[in-house]
Amino acid sequence: MKRALALIFGLSLLLPATVSAAPLQHVVLAGGCFWGMQAVFEPLKGVAKVVAGYSGGNALTAHYDIVSTGLTGHAESVEVTYDPTRISFKQLLDVYFLVAHDPTELNRQGPDDGTQYRSEIFYATPAQRDEAQTYIRHLTSAKVYAGPIVTKIEPLRAFYPAEAYHQDFMAHNPDNPYIVYNDKPKLAALRHRFPHLIRN
């Protein structure tokens, strides 16, 4: 018995040590209708999951019909879960600010009007907050946009997934007129501007 244990123990010393994977991180981003936001972030390398939902209000009002009134404090948002060893937070910000939406539109986005369509980053860590603030300062000093950037930066308090019919809406409804006119051009812009970030 002792000899068997010694053999097993000896073999274990020869086996390579397991390398623990880096923990996934997440951030919640708001920038207009969550249909297009979800579709833009889902194909990115290193993004494990994107969920459409609501953030900024409370659980009782996290329902589409109520959020649509613009009176709940919620913004239509996406929760992006990502592997920081494969895609950086800065690269997510590149896509967010330069493809996914127009950060100069106040409480609206394209044809959608109301505070529920505002531009906002709900950060999960102080490092995300600091990097987002630095990124906005860079865009402003570089005069990337003609108007001021109105994106809010607030701590993430809660995220509530939207109803099932909102999840992967573009994938399920590619010919929907809203999708064709407002969201498919964003995917085209993503492929043109950041092809290296898209999964094969």
CATH C-level category: Alpha Beta
List the domain count as a whole number. Answer: 1
Mean pLDDT: 92
Largest sheet: 6 strands, mixed
Note the run of SSEs as H and E. Answer: HEHEHEHEEEHEEHH
From the alpha carbons, calculate the radius of gyration and give it in angstroms: 21 Å
CATH fold field value:
Peptide Methionine Sulfoxide Reductase, Chain A
Record the strand order, biggest sheet: 7-6-1-3-2-8
The shape is globular
Q: Could you give the distance between the termini?
A: 52 Å
Strands, total number: 8
CATH architect. name: 2-Layer Sandwich
Structural class: alpha+beta
CATH superfamily: Peptide methionine sulphoxide reductase MsrA
